[in-house]
Amino acid sequence: MMAIDWAAVKPGTQLEVLPADKPGVYELRAVVTDLATGKELMRPRLLTEAGKEARIDVGAEGATMLRIAVTVKADGSAATTSTEVRRKGVLEASQRTELRLR
Fold first, then answer.
1. Rounded distance, CA 63 to CA 90, Å?
2. How far is CA 88 from CA 7, 65, 85, in A?
3. Whole-model pTM?
4. How far apart are the two ends of the chain, measured CA to CA in Å?
5. What is the tens place of the pLDDT at every residue in 31-90?
6. Does the structure show a pLDDT above 70 at 1?
7. Handedness of CA 35, 53, 44, 64 (dihedral sign)
8. What is the C-alpha separation between 93 and 58, in angstroms, rounded?
9. Cβ neighbours of residue 17 closer than 8 Å, sequence gap 6 or more
10. Phi, psi of 42 (to 5 degrees)
11. DSSP codes, 27-95
């Protein structure tokens, strides 16, 4: 596994939410790239139950931090995803998207 220089990274994300193998459970699949270089950095996955939030924070405190979160509606009809990029603790970018699942 390569070391990531989080001080220099400009993260970009591609997110997908799919039903998991267990009823009422959903999986967020993410691809995190460095927008400056185009290199893929990681592919985190999150599992969550409908109606509950799941999130992951990656990066380095004092450098760049990326938060990815997902919440699927209790009826499984849609998911809300969000991303935040903080550099040295200051919010630089955020995005929130609602995805229809069925």
1. 10
2. 9, 8, 10
3. 0.90
4. 36
5. 999 999 999 999 999 999 999 999 999 998 889 999 999 999 999 999 999 999 999 999
6. no
7. positive
8. 15
9. 26, 27, 28, 29, 70, 72, 79, 81, 99, 101
10. -170, 165
11. EEEEEEEETTT--EEE--EEEEETT-EEEEEEE-TTSEEEEEEEEE-TTSSEEEEEEEEEETTEEEEEE
Q: Is the pLDDT of residue 2 over 80?
A: no
Distance CA 102, CA 100 (A): 6
Dist. CA 85–CA 36, nearest whole Å: 14
Eight-class DSSP state of 14: E
